[in-house]
């Protein structure tokens, strides 16, 4: 596998290619425009000298110059450094032109002279005998002694030198500009890719479970937004990691206590240190601890399934009063153990709701167990059911120590220990999380408030959709 190119290399090569291509295109366009302008200038030069030669010919006729005098008079105008002019007769013979050592007559094709004589101003450019030239010709009125009709042809030679001079200027300019642009692109590419390299380094640390470092997003562009997203992701992952660690620690702690108790009871029973009349009591305690473990495991599985969206609510119409009464009956042993009572305030009819019966039973069990757990011995828990227009309102009020306002949002977290609020060491700490998840999937909001102004007691209130059977 070949070496992978970095983002910096890709950016630098891309920008360099674009700039180089742009300059090459600019050079070709500029050279083409120069070519057109050069030929246009040549044609203007020809017109100027054509008029001048015509005036000179008229002068020689008015002064009745001899042929030798005409040649001597016109020759200085026909020979220049960058071009040469030739006078041809109507039979295409050369009448007057530069000296043989300076002549470019070989660059003039007979066909070109014929065309100039017949069609007027004619131009032709190209490479002849390895030399690049441009010719302009037109018919001209000659003195009578030269035949009276002929053609003036101007040959611009040494064009290779001019093109090479312009091309060298273009190339030098492009080279200097590209060198400067390369330095600028190098710096810009480094600045653009530097945050990406930093993000890559930090994300690699995240992959190893180290969330101690965040991306320093200083810009407000897309890279800065990406940096902020990476930082947000890191914070969420760190929170998730802390939650996972706390979950493992809390589950291990809550399992260790009952398992330790069961192990102690088993050792005592095996050693025969438990009196015969106390064995039933020990068995009852072992059963209670086993039930506690099972409840913790089941609650943890339920919570995981609810949070993963693996549980689908199946709403159905049923009587909420019957469910409340059934739940209170199931909790009778716990109520007797603390000498507590549950008082239900509910109408006798029209209390049919539309909800998932089994999941709502979990809600009532967890809320009532929570109320029993945190209420003092001999107190009363009140369940109030009220029929509203479209909903059935349920309120569960206990007489416990209450919850601080700042800690109400915390009680829904898994394994939240109310040592910081109002719980003791009992309970798995998952029950209220299950309550919140089930009600959220019913699109039902649960509200927690203090029952009295002095902070004693807590009320959990929510409303379920009311089911009214349609009349036929």
From TrEMBL:
The keyword Hydrolase belongs to this UniProt entry's keyword annotation: no
Keywords, ordered alphabetically: ATP-binding, Cell membrane, Kinase, Membrane, Nucleotide-binding, Phosphoprotein, Transferase, Transmembrane, Transmembrane helix, Two-component regulatory system
Histidine kinase domain residues: 250-468
Pfam families named among the record's database cross-references: HAMP, HATPase_c, HisKA
One Gene Ontology MF term: phosphorelay sensor kinase activity
Segments passing through the bilayer: 12-34, 166-188
Domain HAMP intervals: 190-242
EC assignment: 2.7.13.3
Subcellular location: Cell membrane
PROSITE patterns, sorted: HAMP (PS50885), HIS_KIN (PS50109), PROKAR_LIPOPROTEIN (PS51257)
Reactions it catalyzes: ATP + protein L-histidine = ADP + protein N-phospho-L-histidine
Keyword Repressor: no
Topological type in the membrane: Multi-pass membrane protein
GO cellular component: plasma membrane
Stated name of the protein: histidine kinase
Lineage: Bacteria, Bacillati, Bacillota, Bacilli, Bacillales
